[in-house]
Amino acid sequence: MDMPLLACTLAMIGFGLVMVMSASGVMAELAYGDKYLFIRKQALYAVAGLVVMFGAVFVDRRLLYRLTYPILGLAALLLVATLAFGYEAGGARRWLHLGPVSMQPLEAAKLALVFYLAYFFSHKQEQVKTFSVGFVPPVAVTGLLGGLLLLQPDFGGAAFLCILLFLMSLVGGTSIVYLGSSLVLALACGGLLIAQSEYRIKRWTAFLDPFGNARDTGYQLVQSLYAFGSGGWTGQGLGAGKQKLLFLPEAHNDFILAVIGEELGFVGVSLVFVGLGVILWRAFAISLAQKEPQDRFLGYGLALVLAVGAVLNMSVVLGMAPPKGVPMPFLSYGGSSLVVSCFCAGMLLNLSRGRA
Length: 356
Description:
Blueprint: H1 3-32, H2 37-58, H3 61-66, H4 68-85, E1 87-89, E2 92-98, E3 101-103, H5 105-123, H6 131-134, H7 136-150, H8 155-172, H9 176-195, H10 198-208, H11 219-231, H12 256-289, H13 293-317, H14 335-353
Antiparallel strand pairs: 1-2, 2-3
Helix pairs in contact: 1-2, 1-12, 1-14, 2-14, 4-5, 4-7, 5-7, 5-8, 5-13, 5-14, 7-8, 8-13, 11-12, 12-13, 12-14, 13-14
């Protein structure tokens, strides 16, 4: 299998455990009286992720291909179940309790959409330029999943799925006219959704001028920028960061890159970028090397799940995109994101082995 991809994936998971431990101790002790609570949970998530990853390495891909539509249906059912039975946090229902385990169905929806689009574009190449066969079905499926996410509401999750659809359609052969028209329409609809929600308007204005309201809507981004600014070239030292002392919300989760910037500086953040760069380089190289169209599209889609997640997280943390809860693959605290990232890496390693 592709050893550089395997080595970088394991290194990122290990580095993520170290940074979650550094970033979460203070919050865990104050909130739960146990400063090791989050790192113990993340270690369990990492073990589960590794089991899933190595399971994906050796699974028969043809079996998963035959289950494309059941996987898609299961993802839709999980999103519906979240609306009905999920628990609310931060004004949205995005999490679902499955016994002792909590999961975010958005992560399952990403994988289901990738498997569906890989199947669709590999089997409809002769008709992919047509409107009724090559354009409407993938848009309808993505629209269904995205609509269920908007009902939670999860605007960012719906946007993530739309980005996956656009990028996979771009290489899948969809007409540029249809893609361009849908992009304009999507931007218009996104602007309308933002304009109709006071909460989203505040997030947008906070992104444009975070220091203009640094104690309210711009608070999180301002604290993130303070963390990067105080890190300098080599950082304050591992464990010596100040922003995680309840100044920076979600320090161990979506904004863990800011903690890395403060404690390990420009050098530490650069190493993260290099690690992610190697993973994405090998992921896209593996997908291009596949002979079967469905394998090629699947590898490309799985690489996009990691790439889009990483780019969106970096953009938010560095103030280049409006605030949105997008975890950093392999690094952020949370089981759903880590297990899905490990599954993506495992399937890419499966493809690199060259056997179905």
